[in-house]
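User: Here's a protein and a ligand (adenosine-5'-diphosphate). What would the complex look like?
Assistant: Let me lay out the input and then the predicted complex.
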Amino acid sequence: MDQKKIGCFIAARRKDNGLTQSQLAEKLGITDKAVSKWETGKSMPDLSLFMPLCDLLQITLNELLLGEFISDENLKEKSNEVLFEVVTSWLGKDQWKNKTQSHVPAVLKLSHVEKIYETDSTSTVAVHDVSFEIAKGSFVGIMGASGSGKTTLLNMIATIDKATCGQIKIDDQDISELSENDLASFRREHLGFVFQEYNLLDTLTVYENIALALTIKRMPKDCIKRSITDLAEKLDISEVLSKFPYEISGGQRQRCACVRAIATNPSLILADEPTGALDSCSAKQLLDTFVMLSQKYRATILMVTHDALSASYCDKILFMQDGEIKASLEREQESKRGFFIRILETMAKVTGGIDHVY
Ligand code: ADP
Ligand code: MG
């Protein structure tokens, strides 16, 4: 992608729409400096700002990413050019490592899970008749538009929320049979969490944050030290172990949360929009970490995301809409890029439109 060209195009369109840099910044809820950095080609807008920026500049996403107007007659060709450039720059050119999945035990089993929220006047079916299994060592994504029931589903699996009916089994234990007391220790023993807010305690150093999770599990001190040092090196946070969470970057915090989640060797790692608050480079690092964990350590990961790029790191995707799983897609012998394109196609079928991409 030609950042300079994109910057000039943003500047020109901003002026054409009669906006100053500060007016544009204000409308987007960001600093003037950020706008000026884009326009000089020093940085690119954050992914989350693409759509509102296009609206304000009255251009399409393809035009933004190409840095020029696209006429109707070469729309298809130019759009494909943009798509492939974006995807390649994000995903690289790796090939799929096949995991032999035959006779792998299921870590998570859902059958006919239902969640209905009752309020005074209405009842909302947030999750309807959801059944699936996740095998050990797989990295599964749940995709769906906002409000489709992803968080509700994840919270029930996380034992934070209770299903209205249906069964959820983790490591062959039906979680509805556990008492409140048992649930707390079950969570500690079997589950790891990587959520959008990192949930690190600000009064403890990174090391102490991770050690806390292990102390709760009653691991001997020297064991804790070895385990943390080892994982910190793998996730590239060795230098920040003695710092406090507020002294390190968002990407580093998220990787710390990741070390904390996996240090206890949980059966299942749950991640809700874990890349939501990260810049694209940190997001990519986190996703690479998840892939590494599932391939090398056979960690089982369930990640909620609404973003097709993040999803293309997974082995399998479940597509949710209106509380139901409408489709599923498995990664075959293909690159991330190939999988990404199939994800977009499936999303289009499920939701009936991917206008913003093509
Ligand atoms: P997603 O994570 O996919 O955006 P959610 O699981 O948060 O979706 O929400 C699914 C549906 O359930 C939405 O219609 C939402 O309004 C509703 N919902 C979620 N939580 C509650 C709640 N605590 N009380 C009532 N309705 C809820
Ligand atoms: Mg959600």
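Summary: The chain has two domains: 3-91, 106-350.
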